[in-house]
Design a protein that fits this description.
The chain is α/β, with parallel strands linked by helices. The protein has a single domain (2-193), classed as Formyl transferase, N-terminal domain (Rossmann fold, 3-Layer(aba) Sandwich). It is 35% helix and 22% strand. It contains six helices and seven strands, in the order E-H-E-H-E-H-E-H-E-H-E-E-H. It has a seven-stranded mixed β-sheet with strand order 3-2-1-4-5-6-7, sandwiched between helices. Helix 1 (13-22) runs parallel beside helix 6 and helix 3 packs parallel to helix 4. It holds the Pfam family Formyl_trans_N.
Length: 194
């Protein structure tokens, strides 16, 4: 059974989908802790399933590296097989990525390498493109620049707002994340080879 620590920053809709999938007896992974960079609404999902939570606020530290060291310590307490960044809106310091690599993945609401960064949906609309997508990547030290594990296109419809487009991307992102975790757990995906 693959064990997971999931890191979030907000409402945790991807986390909720993963926790729901993990309720199935044949799903080969379990979330054992949920962390955040601040108190996050998504902790409610963890609480509903009896999953422990932790938060490490950057504002409590002198610099990013000290924050990263504490976050890494909190993650490593759980000895999880995989760390999943799911709506986690902070860039991890290089030593955190290196300590967790290759067993750290991220979801992103764009068809990478198109539209990396925190405003992917807004950026896609501003660019006037006809399609965007969702991606799951292995995390590296760049901004959404790691090796792509899986991705899928999502069409942009005339009149789409950021909110409407994001609402159509999220289910695709959730499905890809859940399938990727299943494939890692069943050795269909080997993160070391990416």
């Amino acid at each position: 059974m693959l064990t997971l620590v999931v890191l979030i920053s907000g409402g945790g809709s991807n986390l909720a989908a993963l926790l729901e999938a993990a309720e199935s007896a044949d799903f080969p992974a379990r979330v054992i802790a949920v962390g955040a960079d601040r108190f996050a609404e998504g902790f409610d999902h963890a609480e509903h399933y009896g999953i422990p939570t932790f938060s490490v606020a950057m504002s409590n530290f002198v610099n990013r590296d000290e924050w990263g060291d504490e976050l890494l310590e909190q993650i490593q307490v759980w000895k999880a097989d995989l760390v999943v960044l799911s709506g986690f809106m902070k860039l991890l310091p290089p030593r955190v990525v290196e300590a967790l690599s290759p067993n750290i993945i991220n979801t992103h609401p764009a068809y990478l390498p198109e539209f990396p960064g925190a405003h992917a949906v807004r950026d896609a609309l501003a660019a006037g493109v006809t399609e965007t997508g969702a991606s799951v990547i292995k995390v590296d030290n760049g901004v959404d620049s790691g090796p792509i594990i899986v991705q899928e296109r999502v069409l942009i419809e005339p009149g789409d707002t950021e909110e409407h487009l994001h609402a159509r991307i999220k289910p695709v992102e959730r499905r890809l994340m859940v399938q990727t975790i299943k494939d890692i757990a069943t050795n269909r995906i080997n993160l070391k080879e990416l």
